[in-house]
Amino acid sequence: MTSRTPGSHPDGHDDSEPHSQTKQLRIGYQLRSLVRHPSGRFGLLLIAPVVFLAVFGRFLIQWGPLEINPADRLQGPSTRHWFGTDQLGRDFAVRIITAIPDVFLVPIGAVTLAVVVGGAAGILAGYRRGWLERILMAGTDVLLAMPALLTAILIVGIFGGGKQNMILAIGIIYIPRFARITRGSTLEVRGLPYVDAARLSGTKPLPLVIRHIVPGISSAVLVMGVLSLSTALLAQTALSFLGFGFRPPTPDLGRMLANAVPFLTIASWLAIFPAIVITLLILAFNNLGDAVRDVFDPEVARASAAL
After folding, report:
1. Contact, 257 vs 169, CB < 8 A?
2. How far is it, in rounded angstroms, from Cα 47 to Cα 27?
3. Quick check: helix, strand or coil at residue 14?
4. How far is residue 158's CA from residue 164's CA, in Å, rounded to a whole number?
5. Residue of 51, 246, 217 whose CA lies nearest to 124
């Protein structure tokens, strides 16, 4: 009698290889479907010029983001200054271009933090149940009961502004929504036959969660994550507009909008161009979120269409 290791065929071939190939083919199909989806294509089209400016814009403009030239203050858009200049004579185009990377990093970082912390809490609550579930869900109820923006302002007020603290503040107010969606999805997945079979076969809790629970809830979490990027960007803009964002003179789109308020009648471009960038990104994130929902979680899409 020949010995046979788990996950292999008697002839020596590993049966995990076809499974891995199938998974790769499925992911490739989903990514192609995402690009072909009308909302996905529109979202990528909207985000493309912003990404282009963020990557190549600094090489096309000769000015520095902190370079002050009082003689050029409040000049309108021209071939010399594409987006005009601000009240200190700084080139407005290069300041917007310099601020764009943080407009991506802060929402993505905040949503990632919320997915990791809220997802872990939701999976733990949904899988373990009992008193632990009641404590974790009570904590999310407390966070949900607090006004989101005021909570974020309180956090950055205590720890100060800056990129890391903005990610922390926005991430904390998004933790409850991910904790709740992962808990609900975990409760649904943990009762499926293949999870019961893995449990009865002696699989320990941590490997069972990683191999079976996490893949089963990943679609719902991914959809919620992409859809949350737009509102996270709005939260970042609101914090910056109120003066709780990056410290001056660091370029910041929200602070640019706040500084533009006294000059709206004589230098409207100071508000128009930051608003265009923010609007493009919010529309892009929303459309990409709709496409991700339709491609990765079609059951949710059908249920939404039926309402």
Report:
1. no
2. 22
3. strand
4. 13
5. 217
Q: Is 50 left (phi over 0), alpha (psi -120 to 50) or beta?
A: alpha
> How far is residue 202's CA from residue 209's CA, in Å, rounded to a whole number?
13
CA atoms within 13 A on the CB side of 122: 30
Write out the two tokens for 142: 């407390």
- pLDDT for the residue 107: 93
Residue 85: φ, ψ to 5°:
-130, 160
Distance CA 112, CA 297 (A): 19
Give the tokens for residue 21: 């190939």
Supply the pLDDT for residue 29. Answer: 67
Residues 149, 155 contacting (CB under 8 angstroms): no
Residue 87: which of 289, 255, 306, 291 has the closest Cα?
255
| Residues 259-293 pLDDT 10s | 999 988 888 889 999 999 999 999 999 998 888 88
pLDDT tens digits for range 184-233: 888 888 878 888 787 888 778 788 888 888 888 888 888 889 889 999 99
Residues contacting 242, CB < 8 A, separation 6+: 153, 258
**Residue 76 CB coordination number (10 Å):** 12
DSSP code for 87: T
Domain boundaries 37-306, corresponding CATH code: 1.10.3720.10
Neighbouring C-beta atoms of residue 227, cutoff 10 Å: 17
Rounded distance between C-alpha atoms, residue 166 and residue 252, angstroms: 12
3-class secondary structure, 86: coil
| Exposed / middle / buried, residue 299 (Cβ in 10 Å: 0-12, 13-18, 19+) | exposed
Nearest-5° Cα angle at 101, 100 to 102? 90
- Amino acid residing at 93: A
DSSP 8-class letter at 129: -
How long a stretch of residues is the chain?
Answer: 307
